[in-house]
Amino acid sequence: MKRVDDFRLRFGKQELVPIVIGGMGVDISTADLALEAARLGGIGHISDAMVKTVADRRFNTKFVKEKLKLYKYNVENPDKSAVQFDLGQLAEATRLHVGKTMEAKRGPGMIFVNCMEKLTMNAPRETLRVRLATALDAGVDGITLAAGLHLGSFALIEDHPRFRDAKLGIIVSSLRALQLFLRKSARTNRLPDYVVVEGPLAGGHLGFGMDWAQYDLATIVAEIHAWLVAEKLDIPLIPAGGIFTGSDAVSFLENGAAAVQVATRFTVARECGLPEKVQQEYFKASEDKIVVNQISPTGYPMRMLTSSPAIGSGIRPNCEAYGYLLDANGSCAYVQAYNREVAAHPGARRVSVMDKTCLCTHMRNFDCWTCGHYTYRLKDTSRKLEDGNYEILSAEHIFKDYQFSTDNKIALPD
Ligand SMILES: Cc1cc2nc3c(=O)[nH]c(=O)nc-3n(C[C@H](O)[C@H](O)[C@H](O)COP(=O)(O)O)c2cc1C
Questions:
Q1: Which SUPFAM superfamilies does the record associate with it (predicted)?
Q2: Mean pLDDT, to the nearest integer, of 151-167?
């Protein structure tokens, strides 16, 4: 019986353990987690979501405070279009976050950054260009284009000196999305170095509608694989979403996948950014406590624990400090929903907003407990302690369990 370690992900001459830890914003996939994946010979992701917040946390900078100071006058204003990102500061925060992570890298693996298009930041093209170009400047090994179609993203950096040497990949959830991306990027004369195929059981935002349960990862991977073969396109495919054991991974690797991308199992790793209190919520979750809902202002369905404090919370939008989801017109679906509730309840000290959530603030505070479908199986991956909590695992333990396990077994910590 084969195990993941019998396979290798190949980028030219470079060979890697075919395990990719997926990006988990806002700093859930920390630099420490990504560094462990790289040390062990796989690929780890950091995320550039809310990079100013992440930089402030890691390096004691004051990016968020300074932005809030600049736009404080607008806090009570329902119109957020005046709130802009300073591109120089955005670059500086990205340079710190990515650059310091790359400086700390040891071992034969790689570190990529997850860049979500849906972080439109009140100036989608300009801010995305800065994020992508600065990550390349800062020496990142690769960029995974996520949460969005990214039809113009390659063109934004085609003049960058590292455009052809860094690994650039994209996450898709259908053959159609991949075809569209390839068609729109054809002019840059550059194929992606890898394609992550994310199925409906993943954590975070889903590339499906609320009919997500009708789709199946293996079927989508097989369809994309067959099309690539027919087109004679040799692009490594990396399935993601619901790959919970080494044996799950092997079955994809035996069917043409070049690697697997996993995340949920690492949400209970010591190196993961979630506070331990939240990690215990993940451990203890039962299947009926995991929902896919539409409260994300991005418009994509998102999977989370039903006990997430973000659900129903009616806090005042915090765009003057954050503002990562403001679209090109300075608008966000949460701001609209909040303003509607305030208008409907004049004089109320607090409102509840059920249909949308202030994702920036709640992700920043680890109050939106997004998770993969199989979160309810995390309790089978650790030991229950006498106080009823579960033992937090090391990233190395989880990584090696994926790498070496057989027969659908999951190794418990020593
Ligand atoms: C807590 C959490 C946060 C996530 N955040 C992001 C994100 O910010 N961007 C992204 O592209 N994918 C995100 N994902 C998806 C993962 O990167 C990954 O593709 C997927 O969850 C793999 O499936 P698995 O969790 O079943 O292993 C997130 C997943 C989890 C569990």
A1: Inosine monophosphate dehydrogenase (IMPDH)
A2: 98
Decide if 34 is inside a domain: yes
Q: Are strands 237-240 and 142-146 parallel, antiparallel or unpaired?
A: unpaired
The pair of three-digit structure tokens given for residue 353, joined into one six-digit string: 């907003």
- Do the domain assignments include residue 29? yes
C-beta of residue 34 within 8 angstroms of C-beta of residue 46 = yes
The separation between CA 59 and the C-alpha centre of its own chain, rounded to angstroms, equals 22
What is the distance between the alpha carbons of residues 172 and 198, in angstroms, rounded to a whole number? 6
Q: Which atom of ligand 1 is nearest to the CA of 146?
A: 11
Q: Which amino acid belongs to residue 327?
A: D
pLDDT at residue 105 in the model = 98
Other residues' Cβ atoms within 10 Å of the Cβ of residue 228: 18
Residue 200 has a pLDDT of 98
Measured distance CA(127)–CA(107) in Å, rounded: 32
* CATH number of the domain encompassing residue 207: 3.20.20.70
Average confidence (pLDDT) over 2-22: 97
Amino acid of residue 413: P
240 CA closest ligand 1 atom index:
22
Q: Is residue 409 in some structural domain?
A: no
Q: What is the pLDDT of residues 177-224, one digit of tens each?
A: 999 999 999 999 999 999 999 999 999 999 999 999 999 999 999 999
Average pLDDT over all residues of the chain: 98
Give the chain's domain count: 1
The span from the CA of 37 to the CA of 45, in Å, is 9
Q: How many whole angstroms from 215 Cα to the centroid of ligand 1?
A: 17
How does residue 269 score in pLDDT terms, banded at 50, 70 and 90?
very high
Structure tokens at 176: 């159609």
Residue nearest (by alpha carbon) to ligand 1 atom 6: 24
* Residue-level pLDDT at 414: 87
Could you tell me the distance, in angstroms and rounded to a whole number, from the CA of residue 39 to the centre of ligand 1?
21
Using alpha carbons, select from 246, 221, 264, 256 the residue that is nearest to residue 5. 246
* CA separation, residue 367 to residues 203, 291, 391 (Å): 15, 15, 22
Q: How far apart are CA 232 and CA 239, in angstroms?
A: 20
Q: What is the CA radius of gyration of the chain?
A: 21
